[in-house]
Amino acid sequence: MRNLNHVSLYAFTARAIHSQVAIIGGGTAGLNVSAQLVRDGHYIPQQIRVFEPYKMHAYQTGWTLVGGGMCKADQTMKPMEKVLPKNVCLSDCPVVKIDPEQNTIVTMDGQKYTYDQLIVASGVQRDYASIKGALEQLNNPEAPVGSIYYYRYAQKIDKMIREFEGGKLIFSEPPTKCEGIPSNIVFLTHERLSARNVKCDFHVYKANDSIFGIPKYSEILGELAHEKGLHCHLKKRLIEVQDHKVIFEDVETKQQYTSDYDFLHIVPPQKPAAFIAESGLGDSDGYVNVHPNTLQHVRYANVWALGDCSSLPTSKTAAAVMAQTPILIKNLIRTWKMKLPPLPEYEGYTSCPVYTSNKKVLLAEFKYNKQLDETFPVFQSSDSKLMYLMKKHFFPFAYWQLMVRGLWGGRDGIRLFKGV
Ligand SMILES: Cc1cc2nc3c(=O)[nH]c(=O)nc-3n(C[C@H](O)[C@H](O)[C@H](O)COP(=O)(O)OP(=O)(O)OC[C@H]3O[C@@H](n4cnc5c(N)ncnc54)[C@H](O)[C@@H]3O)c2cc1C
């Protein structure tokens, strides 16, 4: 009660704080945009404000490796103040409301902010709670249930694999916007247990109707799954988790199936933050409704979005963020400072690297309409050792050493600013 009084008094008395550019979210997208805006000299850092409630920035891609026993959780996180460009303003209270008509943002403590340009980069929320009983089992250290989508549950998966002595393993996937990520932990678990000669029965339950949305990669992964004796069940959605028992539902017929398990990996359903829809910025699913090629909001010319929270109809990955960032910045500068129309340059590029073992990776790269867009076609006709070396060693280096300095251009390599 005392807190609430404090909040409303603060809201009443505090003056709005203005920034030329407001960025909601200091995850991969928010960090990359702020770093490139500063590096390219478009804004002095003090004119940019990032809203991010978490003290630590997470390289979520690394959580796959945590679950796979290939890296420690603390290697995937760094304090926000160490990665955010120097002198960029940071507000550590979550945004609860935007008024795009008045160019204002309100944070949970009632503070009001105004902006000239707004970039929404608030990612997605992982909705474990929508699966009945899932959180109870995930939070029970004795229950053999984990998930690479949160670092603590990824640590649990690693421990589960190390201690597993045989039985039935289930991997569940809801409808997902990146099908590569869940496959990683299936193959890595298989590899580690095979190396120990543990007797296993692997079952993958996917809500989607194919192993991977792009036929070429679906075929390659399907063959690998077959070779490794993994059983795939399509169009099945996990709806309930109990002690050593799960309930799935067929996404079409709604018929329910139960199964026992000795090991369960859950991919959580994902959804955008509620403030997006509540502020009138969302599409019918609540994602920030931006033009698929310019990244500009369909109604508000000074609102932009990229990354997982955006409506961009492509697989949601950090690789996609790297391709989206320079286009968003170019269009923001063109429309605001040069009074020119935005350029429709983003074609949906994304990439999903899939560990098929702890020595090889299949690098899937594509763009809108399921078109392949491969950088190294010779190495992408199957899983490859070279792609593994890039994924395991080079990408984390590029993220922590180049991306946070605004120097990483994704597959364009190290970026040298060439102007708008
Ligand atoms: C296990 C796993 C493995 C992955 N593997 C790969 C991979 O191999 N390759 C790849 O390219 N991608 C991979 N990804 C995907 C990649 O991590 C995401 O696509 C990327 O992080 C998206 O960046 P983002 O900034 O949009 O979202 P995030 O990085 O999630 O950042 C969003 C930020 O917004 C903040 N936020 C949320 N709500 C608010 C609010 N109300 N106010 C203020 N701030 C808010 C959050 O705290 C968060 O820090 C993986 C993801 C996971 C979970």
UniProtKB/TrEMBL annotation:
* Residues annotated as domain FAD/NAD(P)-binding: 20-137
Cite a single GO BP annotation.
Answer: sulfide oxidation, using sulfide:quinone oxidoreductase
Check the record and name the InterPro entries matching this protein.
Answer: FAD/NAD-binding_dom (IPR023753), Sulphide_quinone_reductase (IPR015904)
- Which GO molecular function terms does the record list? FAD binding; sulfide:quinone oxidoreductase activity
Please, which domain of life does this record's source organism belong to? Eukaryota
Gene Ontology, cellular component aspect? mitochondrion
PANTHER family on file: SULFIDE:QUINONE OXIDOREDUCTASE, SULFIDE:QUINONE OXIDOREDUCTASE, MITOCHONDRIAL
Protein name per UniProt: FAD/NAD(P)-binding domain-containing protein
